[in-house]
Amino acid sequence: FTTKVSRLHNNNNKKMESIIPEALQMPVSILGQALLAFCVYYALFIVVWLWFHIDCFAFAVYSKDKKWKKTPEANAAMFSSPETMDFVFVRHGESTWNVTFNRSKNPIFFIPRLLDAAFKEIRLAIGGKQDSWFIDSPLSDLGLKQAADLRKFLNDNKDSADLGETIKVMLGESDTKRSTLVTSNLRRAISTGLLGLYDRLRLKKDKILIHSALQEISTNPDTMAITPPVTLPVASWVDKRYKDVDLDSAHKNCLDSAMHYGNKRIEGNGQQRMLEFLDWAFDNQDLGTLVCFGHSLYFRAMFREFLPESSTFIGKNKKMKNGAAVKVTVQRKTIDGKNYYRMVESDIKTVYAGFE
User: Fold this and answer.
1) CB proximity list for 82: less than 8 A, separation 6 or greater
2) Taken in order 237, 241, 244, 248, is the CA torsion positive or negative?
3) Which of 114, 109, 98 has its CA nearest to residue 146?
4) Sign of the CA dihedral 288, 291, 294, 295?
5) Residue 293's pLDDT band (boundaries 50, 70, 90)?
6) How far is CA 219 from CA 264, 267, 278, in A?
7) CB–CB of 354/327 below 8 Å?
8) Which pLDDT score is estimated for 5?
9) Which of 14, 174, 248, 326 would give a disulfide with 168, using CB separation of 3.0 to 4.6 Å?
10) Helix, coil or strand: residue 250
11) Considering the entire predicted model, what is its pTM?
């Protein structure tokens, strides 16, 4: 057997020598070995990572988070004299997961990004920190800039004829409408809220309520929360090095974790969380307009679920941009003890950035 393998190896070497010029044989060989080493290293990293995060693996394999039967569309007659409530959806800035997987897929750029992310994940794990590049991925440096851009836009456009009143509601400066800040329990949404509405939080001593029902709809590890239930999240290593705002202090003083019940259930799905959130919102209308910091797939699912099937609204097929803000009005009608919801397409207004 050993003799046969040796002959095969020699034959392959001869073939390579006949195809590749002698001057290139060593660089090609080194490149091949480096590629093999990368594959082995990354495979080993995945195995070890999944071993330590078996909950993420189980959720990715067994969860039906993105699968449900759409609620039958209610006819217009059912919604005579409905309850109404306003929401402002704000998508988080770019996350570290987005940096690795959502930028260029060209191997020349993707493989170095993947290696860099793996090394950072190992370093965070060895450091024993409640942090991760992949799980509950935090804002990237660009994501922090996008949240800061939102902050600047809101402060610069309070007197806009078209958007001024909505912006004042978001900033808590409206003379006629109250508002409450609510966020998903995932770190990138939390940091976007803390930075984007920092001036409101600082000046009015306000807090953002963390609500588990806003958790992103997906089976990916970046949509799994690492913060224990009813616990304040810890600022990520990216947040802590941000200079313009003390995000570490903001995490400790500007958040309310009373509605953070922990991770989404493996047997649940996104529709259940959307309905749970809307039930809670309409049962607490004294909170006023809800400014919701959340996620692209969650908000897109809201548009798909509660706009009429005949609607061609862009948000049913396109994601909101990172840092974007969109105002919506939702109606509720309770019939025989069951709550029905729908969005009013004519009342949807893009406040900032819009859709991809």
Assistant:
1) 331, 332, 333
2) positive
3) 98
4) positive
5) very high
6) 10, 12, 22
7) no
8) 45
9) 174
10) helix
11) 0.86
